[in-house]
Structures are given as C-alpha cells and as structure tokens.
Design goal:
Elements (H helix, E strand, L loop, with lengths): L5 E6 L9 H12 L4 E6 L2 H10 L4 E4 L16 H7 L3 E4 L2 H4 L6 H13 L3 E6 L3 H5 L3 H12 L9 E5 L13 H19 L7 E5 L7 H5 L6 E4 L6 H12 L2
Parallel strand pairs: 1-2, 1-8, 2-3, 3-4, 4-5, 5-6, 6-7, 7-8
Helix pairs in contact: 1-10, 5-7, 7-8
The structure holds glyceraldehyde-3-phosphate.
The site of glyceraldehyde-3-phosphate (G3H) has 14 residues, from strand 8.
C-alpha cells in the first residue's frame, strides 16, 4: 500500500456565496470522520475567511495568489493574505489562469515559491490542450511544464501536483485511466530527476470531470493519489461519494 494518503480537493472556482457555507460544513463533517483521506476545499477568496472561521479544523485553500509579497497589484491577493484569512494551501497554475490570464511557467513557479515561503502548501497544476494531445505531444508538453513550474526548492510534503488535461475540465470527457496512469508515471519520473527518492512522497492528483461514478476507478490507478474536483465539489451530495471512493481504496 502506498504511503501517500489520498487527497481529495474541491475547487469551487467562481462559484459560491455565504449561502453555500452549509455545503462546506456538510463536506467538512464527513471529512473529519474519514481518517484515511485528506480533504480540502478551495472556495473563492471571499469565502476563505468565513469558511475557515466556521470550520476551524478543516483544510481551506485559495485558488490563486500573486507572486509578489505585497504591493501595488490592484485586484490581486497575496499568499500571506490567504494565510491570514485561514487558508492552509493554494492552487497555482490552473489552466484557467495559465490560459485565461496569460500566466507563464515562470509566473506559476514564482507563485509557488511565494506561497511556500508564506506558509501555504501548494497544489501546482499542469495539463495539455486537446490540440497538443491530438498531436501526440501531451507527455512532452506536460512534463516540460512541470519542470519549468517547479519551485527551486521545496519540502515534498508541502507540494502536490495536479494533472488536469484542459479538454477534460468541465466537459464530462474524462481522460482514460490508461492515459492518466501514463502521464502520472511521466510526472513522477520528472520529479525523480529533480529530487530523487523524495519524488515518491509527492501526491499526484488527477483533475477533469471527476465525479462519484468515475472516482473509484481513477483513484485506484497507479500513481493517482487523489483528485482535484471542480463541478462535483460544489455540493455535499456530489462531493461526498468521491471522498468515500477514496476512503474505500
Ligand atoms: O480544478 C478543478 C478542475 O479544473 C476540474 O474541474 P471539473 O471537475 O469541473 O472538470
């Protein structure tokens, strides 16, 4: 059995108001009773503090942070601010920011380094477009993205990698288990070439249309240590079966 605990993370993206804190509470209650799985929720920034205040024992994360420590960056939020609001982790490099906000590997790496320095654990996302996969270039592209986005140094217990093929996000078009296993093996090898044996400690999550029906098969696959879940994390009724699937492995 792997020494890596399963890790199930919900990313609410730009969804949720204080009316939805009850959903988070229901998720946190099940998470606290599931001692073999780590669970976290990443709500929009406006909900980090109210969620952390209400659910003190639960792991709450941000969805992004700025790479600078502080300064004149209107509309941005720093890692230290997230930490101050009660966050324990942050997602960096999500494709919706790489593609939608023009974030380069260098920016993603700087964000990861800032977050770790300011006390947040990091989930670093990588993934290829449909055009890249169709061209047969997915593995080269994603491993290069990882190599260029990794912090210069890091504690392997504080970093997780999320492989999210862009074409699988929010589409219902989940990657095949074979493709996920092949990509995760390549990511593990990339990590090993950088940090040696410690690569075995880093959790590799899959993201892209994970739901209660497909989670068990994905989470049982080699090197799949968890899931980064979007749409199916918005309600307890959809998210809990994914946590339960992880706990059953
Ligand atoms: O961060 C989460 C991913 O982008 C997956 O989103 P999804 O589960 O809605 O496909």
């Amino acid at each position: 059995m792997s020494e890596r605990r399963k890790y199930i993370v919900g990313n609410w993206k730009m969804n949720g108001t204080r009316d939805d804190l009850g959903e988070a509470a229901a998720i946190a209650e099940v998470a606290s009773a599931t001692d073999t799985v780590d669970v976290a929720l990443c709500p929009p920034a406006t909900l980090v503090a109210p969620m952390a205040d209400r659910l003190a024992e639960f792991s709450i994360g941000g969805q992004d942070c700025h790479h600078a420590e502080a300064g004149a960056y209107t509309g941005s939020i720093s890692a230290a601010m997230l930490r101050d609001a009660g966050a324990r982790l942050v997602i960096v490099g999500h494709s919706e920011r790489r593609e939608g906000c023009g974030e380069s590997d260098a920016i993603v790496r700087a964000k990861a380094e800032r977050a770790l320095a300011d006390g947040l654990d990091v989930i670093l996302c990588v993934g290829e477009s449909k055009a890249i996969r169709d061209a047969g270039d997915a593995e080269r592209h994603v491993t290069a993205q990882l190599a260029a986005s990794l912090p210069a140094s890091f504690d392997s217990a504080r970093l997780a990698i999320a492989y999210e093929p862009i074409w699988a996000i929010g589409t219902g078009d989940v990657a095949t288990v074979e493709d996920v296993v092949a990509m995760h093996a390549a990511l593990r090898a990339t990590l090993a070439s950088r940090i040696g044996d410690d690569a075995a400690k880093i959790r590799l999550l899959y993201g892209g249309s994970v739901n209660g029906a497909n989670a068990a098969e994905l989470l049982a696959a080699a090197n799949v240590d968890g899931a980064l879940v979007g749409g199916a994390s918005l309600t307890a009724v959809k998210f809990l079966p994914i946590i339960e699937a992880a706990a059953a492995i």
